[in-house]
Request: fold
Amino acid sequence: MNHHIYHLTNTQLPEPLCHQLAPFISAYRPHDKPPTKKDMDQDDYIPKESPLSKENIIDTYKAIKYSQDLEWLKLKREYNKKWKGYRTSYDIIPYLLSSEN
Reply:
């Protein structure tokens, strides 16, 4: 390790050199402990899905074009996301609907 920077304490440096060494001197100063996740996220913030996300745009398109309920499409999407990889009736419904058309 290089601890030569500590020899600069109580040393008078020329102003240009002081500005050039400022980032290195600052890196060796005592730092606070980093905040924990609990400190940063005190309210257990869960990010909401953006209204401009791909899924929301597709659901809005389906609601307008096929006169479907937007809230039901959102619930169905959340259900499918939660149970992804499991066989459910919601996963089978789109295949049944596509075969009728």
The mean pLDDT is 77. The chain has five helices and no strands. The helical segments are 15-27, 37-40, 54-65, 70-82, 89-100.
